[in-house]
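Problem: given the chain below (72 residues), write out its structure.
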Amino acid sequence: MFDIYLNGRRDLLVVPRGFAIPVGLDGSWKRKKRAVRLVSDVIRQDVQQRGYHRRSLISSRSKTAVETSSHA
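Solution.
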């Protein structure tokens, strides 16, 4: 199981359940109420290698919007 956190800049942080937020990840992280059982293989591999997975939700949405508009 994994704990999911969001911060004010809409960054996503995934850590194994019960683990603390890694040192060096600044920001005011707020844990979502429920733990998640399943995550994608990419996130699972990242958590196994680094101990956490972090990504910006806004930048991935912006990239999708740019790609969609350029294909139209």
